[in-house]
């Protein structure tokens, strides 16, 4: 190997090392920033849980944090009622400028979701009821292709508004005793770069 080639390789190795170190340092800074942001958000919610007396504000904070994490367009919060129903507490869809319940001061006009059918059987056809009864998280990539759940109400809403409800992530909301007190349903995850509707991450 000539001295010229040796110097070139040494220079390349140094450049590679510097680039790798620079990239690693950048990734560490990004990771630390992300952790700090998440801790700050969770701390804010934890503080609200202990001090916030205004329940609509608290519930909306929880829902908006779920939106931030998943980058979704729509979200609904259902709360469990004593008569075995899930009441619509907050409904929001950004692209439709749609905000009812919570801090909006506007009542949600939708009927509650019944957890049990008239014959006493569990209502497993409605995805929110299923999550509320079983405690399972349900991830639906495309409601129009999904089987096993009744999305007829969703499709009627889409027909009236021109919206296209596609991906759903439905998560049971539990208290400190691990009791299900409600359900969070997120709608239409979006690609951060393009805004295109995509399925929710399996890790969400």
Automatic annotation (TrEMBL):
Protein name: GAF domain-containing protein
SUPFAM superfamilies linked: GAF domain-like
Gene3D superfamilies, sorted: 3.30.450.40
Coiled coil stretches, renumbered: none
Transmembrane parts of this sequence: none
Residue ranges annotated for the GAF domain, each copy included: 58-203
First and last residue of the signal peptide: none
């Amino acid at each position: 190997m000539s001295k010229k080639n040796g110097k070139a390789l040494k220079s390349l190795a140094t450049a590679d090392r510097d680039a790798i170190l620079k990239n690693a340092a950048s990734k560490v800074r990004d990771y630390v920033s992300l952790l700090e942001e998440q801790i700050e958000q969770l701390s804010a919610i934890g503080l609200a849980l202990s001090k916030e007396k205004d329940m609509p504000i608290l519930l909306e904070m929880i829902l908006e944090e779920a939106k931030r994490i998943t980058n979704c367009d729509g979200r609904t919060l259902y709360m469990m009622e004593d008569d075995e129903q899930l009441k619509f507490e907050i409904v929001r869809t950004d692209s439709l400028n749609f905000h009812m319940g919570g801090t909006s001061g506007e009542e949600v006009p939708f009927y509650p979701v019944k957890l049990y059918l008239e014959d006493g059987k569990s209502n497993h056809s409605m995805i929110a009821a299923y999550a509320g009864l079983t405690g399972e998280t349900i991830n639906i990539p495309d409601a129009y292709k999904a089987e096993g759940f009744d999305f007829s109400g969703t499709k009627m809403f889409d027909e009236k508004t021109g919206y296209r409800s596609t991906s759903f992530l439905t998560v049971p909301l539990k208290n400190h005793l691990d009791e299900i007190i409600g359900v969070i349903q997120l709608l239409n995850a979006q690609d951060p770069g393009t805004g295109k509707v995509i399925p929710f991450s399996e890790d969400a």
